[in-house]
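stage 2 :: seqdesign
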């Protein structure tokens, strides 16, 4: 299983240090073999990774240069960050990233060998328009994306489920994951209002290889609880 915590624009550097200390020691003490990735804000990327990977929530696709307000590969290298989140719905819808820009980021960071957590997902009006519209919408989010990239992880995150407490039914999650699975062998995460109460049930669904968690992962103890749930499933399946 793969468990990701996306802090978004939450937590200071101090808070992130305290959080990482808790999660690192939990993963170490419990000999967790599942993959754990934390995406803190830029200001808190520093980390001496032992058992938990650190990823960046966004970056500009260049080595360095005149890109005011952005960070690039040179700054990420300094922190030894080799994992990136691309295509998150907040970047698509709030920050206005186009599919073309997203694909450009994907190509650049794939060429640099990054682990890429690539997000797809539909807004509510598309979900309400039916399955065909939904899959056509998600398909358009693959334009320019190499689905055979070996370090690709895909996160299916319905926009209407992010930060809302609304979660698709298990059947709905499985249906979308099955259709993504038909296109790629990359691990598939579900994201959108995952919390301690529903994480294990979701992770047990077919074609779900982990979760991408926002608000509920801001609590280190809750995130650790979800890691424990994943490990329980992994051990059962062995
Ligand atoms: P949420 O966010 O868990 O707060 O819904 C998930 C995400 O945006 O990755």
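stage 2 :: out
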């Amino acid at each position: 299983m793969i468990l990701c915590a996306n802090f978004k624009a939450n937590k200071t550097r101090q808070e992130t240090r305290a959080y990482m200390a808790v999660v690192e020691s939990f993963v170490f003490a419990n000999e967790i073999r599942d993959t754990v990735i934390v995406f803190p804000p830029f200001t808190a990327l520093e980390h001496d990774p032992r058992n938990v990977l650190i990823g960046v929530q966004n970056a500009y696709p260049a080595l360095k240069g005149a890109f005011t307000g952005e960070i690039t590969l040179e700054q990420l290298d300094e922190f030894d960050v080799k994992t990136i989140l691309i295509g998150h719905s907040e970047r698509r819808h709030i920050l206005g990233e186009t599919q073309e820009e997203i694909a450009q980021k994907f190509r650049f960071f794939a060429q640099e060998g990054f682990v890429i957590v690539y997000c797809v997902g539909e807004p509510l009006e598309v979900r309400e328009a039916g399955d065909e519209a939904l899959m056509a919408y998600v398909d358009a989010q693959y334009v320019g994306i190499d689905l055979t990239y070996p370090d690709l992880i895909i996160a299916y995150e319905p926009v209407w489920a992010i930060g809302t407490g609304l979660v698709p039914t298990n059947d709905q999650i499985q249906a979308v994951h099955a259709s993504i699975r038909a296109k790629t062998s990359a691990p598939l995460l579900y994201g959108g209002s995952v919390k301690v109460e529903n994480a294990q049930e979701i992770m047990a669904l077919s074609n779900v290889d982990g979760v991408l968690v926002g608000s509920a992962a801001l609590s280190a103890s809750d995130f650790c609880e979800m890691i424990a749930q994943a490990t329980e499933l992994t051990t059962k399946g062995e």
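stage 3 :: structure notes
- Residues 6, 157, 162-163, 191-194, 212-216 surround 2-phosphoglycolic acid (CB under 6 Å).
- The first helix runs from residue 13 to 29.
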